[in-house]
Specification:
Chain lengths: 295, 282
Amino acid sequence: MAVSGAHLSWNLARDVHQLLAFHFMVNAFRAGGIVAVAAALTGWFMVLRRQAFAGHTLALVGFPGAAGALWLGISVSWGYFGFCTAAALVIAAVPHGDGHGYSQESAGIGVVQAFALASGFLFVALHRGFLNGVNTLLFGSFLGVTDHQVVVLLIVAAAALVALGIVGRPLLFASVDQSVALARGVPVRPLSLLFLLLLGLTAAEVSQITGTLLVFALLVMPAATAQLLTIRPVLSLALSVAIALVVTWAGLAVAYYSPYPIGFFVTTFGFAAYVVAAVVRRLAPALRSRGPVTP
Amino acid sequence: MSLPAGRTRAAGGGALAVEVRGGAVTLGGRTVWRGLDVDIGAGEFVAVLGPNGVGKSTLIRAILGLVPLASGRMTVLGGPPGGANASIGYLPQRRSFETGLRVRGVDIVRLGLDGDRWGLPLPGGGRRRETQSRVEEVIGMVGAAAYAHRPIGEVSGGEQQRLLIAQALVRRPHMLLLDEPLDSLDLSNQASVASLVSRICRDESVTVVLVAHDVNPILGYLDRVVYLGPGGAVCGPPAQVITSQTLSRLYRTPIEVLRTGDGGLVVVGQPEPPAYHSDRHG
């Protein structure tokens, strides 16, 4: 994007001061931080539950949601949240196998996704003349975030994370060990529905900032990277959040000084983190075998 | 987690962990079994045997209250089925973890202890230390300390089975329900897991109900067997139940039970191939 007059220097304090000189950048950092934390935590469970395809579909559903809202002339936020939660309910209603794994779910989810995209296309056609807007819906608008939007994002994220905190342990249990969880009285089916709703809310939230096509940059990459790096659940969750925040804020900062889009930098940094983690994990056993083994 | 009061007393005087009288289960319109009478004494090591599809897993699930009885009566640890599940450790059938699952064995065991609790665990509490020490203790009990901190998907079948037994044990249950824990293990692992389960049964005074396809790895440890067959069910000491006469009646076809030189049993004439096998919750 490259704001005129902005130059990267070796003076870090001056750079940060420059970055935060404009209110739109402050809001971009705020909104980016909020969606990064929400996506990192919800995405962690999504990756663990192998529900990335459901997450992807819920993210894409934001596109017809927002396009439909624009066409009807109502708030775009309502479009995102409304469509994403509705799609979560539809996906939850798709029958899947009793066992763990959601492989049988995928065909049904694909059907939902295809129809959602087609509806989005229709809404765009019905609402003539906002072709520029389509680009924003798909690839995001970090820089036009209003104070009001930041508040809405914060409230929804806080609600989603409180809910995730309450159900976290039983959800983990149900995700990795469904049959025993069921015997222990964990409400596996309701939890599965609740998680899809939380995933829909998070996808809607992230979509508004990164655009529907780049939601995965925050939903999958930090969580997948963290799970590669450690198998301790709490550490893994913390790492996922840290990676998401670093990737988002670094992407914003770099884009500020460059002519290229923010989404590209955020996604590229996320990808780089994943590649580094994969290489580290591949090399780790070899390195460990040389040094003393620490438990 | 104290024992529910008022355990049923059997005619012989010992407490009963499970008592079934005239039990029947219908699944999807099909009667799985009916007229089932079972007595499982507290602290006993009991095997549930029988060919594929006779409802061995269904019996386990009925004891847990996950499958309702169509008729008859069942008492589990002195109450209705499902009422005492907090005192029951359950190991479901043929559960293996994906190779890519990035969860440690110790986490799986720990989820067995507090996985059904809502909210976040508070850091630094006494309960946290207690939880940790109990998880370590039970992992030591099954001899899984060496690999409990590796991803569960990457350890062998026998090692997974030990960790899952640890998970079933972690709440100090009064009864263990193990659905084919020896399935898919090689012979030496079958023998060592069988002896582990019998040791737990004896040392921790835990009633063990173990579904098995092959009785031989556990034969020496059993107090009682429940043999389910197309012709009904028989419950009693192994020497009385696993006989040519009884099994011929259960299978409704001539069966011969032969004793091998090392004390093992061979059942000849079963009307099914030696399947390895497909009786999912049959």
